[in-house]
Design brief:
This protein has about 130 residues and is of the alpha+beta class. About 45% of the residues lie in helices and about 20% in strands. The protein has one domain.
Length: about 130
Amino acid sequence: MDNYFTIKSANEILPTIIKKFQKIKQEKNEVEKMEQKLQMNLSGTSNLDDYVTLKQNLNASVTRFYTSIEELEKTGVVLKGLEEGLLDFPSKKFDDEIWLCWKEGETEIKFWHEKDVGFNGRKPIDVNKESLV
């Protein structure tokens, strides 16, 4: 990977990333609503035309959801957990690849963790002591 985030570049792009993340959550909610409508339709007395229309709407909603994820991840940021609200930004600490870590509700990147460690292993960024790219 050639594109690593610095703390500064991650924080600069964070407002845009948060908007993309929120869009993904909205798209997921729409998919869930469409699934519920489809299930209610199956148990109701609706005709096949209504069912087919609902199914097509669900398919379009699922497509929008995955497109939103792709748009976010094209920035280089990785969606680690939609329900948990976790995003990771690839970075480096000296020569080691690491993740800069963001959790929904945070206003800036303040934590990092090793590649093979998850959210529970995240550590606060201390720029005075850490050499992060």
